[in-house]
From TrEMBL:
Residue intervals of the FAD dependent oxidoreductase domain: 8-371
Any single GO CC term annotated in Swiss-Prot or TrEMBL for this entry: cytoplasm
Protein known as: FAD dependent oxidoreductase TIGR03364
Domain of life: Bacteria
Length: 389
């Protein structure tokens, strides 16, 4: 009978949260196995905008976001993938949107000499130039200089390759079944582990359905597309619109946010019904990622109604005054719940780490460092003893 393999840390899920967990573990000298039931990294972590929106977060998300920022910069250097530090652009097309940006800028003033400016207010001319918009589109805007952008299709794979080089083992096409303290039963047999990290995004409702129901986790399906368009100049950063100002927590905590929400909902009920977040990122090849709509439920329909895609294209063409040619369409899914994170040690040394809203690229690496790293630090004596057995 062959002996059961043993690792200090087994991570279930090779998306950005799982990769972050593997990084936190290998940084602490652990032996690490990452398993994923897919043959490639193909979940939400490659289907997103690649927008690392640190500034509009608050509370725990802000802590994780700022920790993530350092890790993204380090990884981009160490793993050698493209990262852009030009910051996020926000176009205000109405006075209430500009008012919200002014409130945020006043709240995020640098507290000490030399501290970074987090929100730079822009004139209408400035935002139109930086975001390739026609004259007369904006009443003003802002730049959020701390924010970063990556190309998600390449970043996750580059991080995996970097981790491989540091001795982390990846076992793809391998599904986790029963998970209990010390052991993961996989579709290739059992594996023993000092610590198990479950980073399976919305599939948490399959692995731990009772816990997922307790947290009110459902799935959120998003329609996305990649387009080419003959814009007069490139975007100088991810571009958010008023629809984004009613989403991210630091924006929604501003007094003007309810004015923006009420007006947009009254003016464009059909877009509000799609739960639209009209935003854009431009990839290094010049094509633009366009999104997104949101549909929440226990399952996500495999059939994508064309009205969402039509609305995304219409809004693109009306904003930029340029035709968009669709290159690709896809659907993304993430877990969503009342709180932004589901973090629980469901059994001793079994950590569940799920970002339960659409900010996992922004916060996932920091979450992994703060939750998994802190757990390993606390349990380092046990770990060293078990590794030496
Ligand atoms: C369309 C879209 C746009 C988004 N835009 C942004 C953005 O711009 N900025 C931002 O911060 N966030 C964004 N997000 C959110 C972000 O992408 C996610 O929060 C993040 O990628 C989640 O990472 P993850 O590692 O938890 O999940 P995933 O990347 O989905 O990885 C989970 C992995 O678990 C594996 N798995 C599941 N069950 C099992 C099992 N039983 N056994 C083995 N493996 C299993 C899956 O195969 C998958 O590979 C967006 C999300 C979507 C869908």
């Amino acid at each position: 009978m062959s002996a059961i393999e043993r690792f200090d840390v087994v991570v279930v899920g090779s998306g950005i949260v799982g990769l972050g967990a593997a990084l936190a573990a290998v940084d602490r000298g652990c032996s690490v196995l990452v398993i994923d039931r897919a043959s490639e990294i193909a979940g939400a972590s490659v289907r997103n905008f690649g927008h690392l929106c640190f500034t509009p977060q608050s509370g725990l998300a802000r802590d994780y976001a700022m920790a993530s920022r350092e890790i993204w910069l380090r990884l981009a250097h160490d793993a050698g993938f493209w990262i852009d530090d030009a910051g996020t652009l926000v176009v205000a097309r109405h006075d209430d949107e500009l008012q919200l940006l002014r409130e945020l800028a006043a709240q995020r003033l640098p507290r000490s000499p030399g501290a970074a400016v987090e929100v730079e207010l822009l004139t209408a001319d400035e935002i139109e130039t930086l975001a390739a918009l026609p004259a007369g589109t904006a009443v003003g805007g802002a730049r959020l200089p701390l924010d970063l952008q990556v190309d998600p299709r390449f970043a996750a794979a580059a991080i995996r390759d970097h981790l491989l080089g540091r001795g982390v083992e990846f076992r793809m096409r391998t599904a986790a079944g029963r998970i209990a303290s010390g052991r993961v039963d996989t579709s290739r047999g059992p594996v023993d582990a000092g610590t198990i990290v479950v980073a399976v995004n919305h599939d948490i409702d399959q692995l731990f359905p009772v816990m997922a129901e307790r947290y009110g986790v459902v799935r959120c399906g998003l329609d996305m597309m990649r387009v080419t368009a003959d814009l007069p100049r490139p975007l100088t950063g991810p571009l958010l619109t008023g629809w984004s100002l009613i989403r991210y927590s630091a924006f929604t905590s501003m007094a003007a946010s309810s004015d923006v929400r009420d007006r947009l909902t009254a003016e464009r009920p059909e877009l509000a019904a799609l739960d639209l977040n009209q935003m854009y990122t431009q990839r290094p090849d010049g094509s633009l990622i366009v999104g997104d709509s949101h549909w929440k439920g226990e399952s996500v329909s495999p059939f994508q109604p064309e009205d969402a895609a039509r609305a995304l294209l219409d809004e693109f063409e009306s904003l930029f005054q340029h035709r968009a040619d669709v290159v690709e369409r896809w659907q993304g899914v993430y877990a969503t719940a009342g709180e932004e994170f589901l973090i629980e040690e469901i059994e001793p040394d079994v950590l569940v780490t799920v970002v339960t809203t659409g900010i996992g690229m922004t916060t996932g690496l920091g979450l992994a460092e703060k939750v998994v790293g802190a757990h390993l630090d606390t349990h380092s004596r046990t770990l060293t003893e078990s590794t030496m057995l």
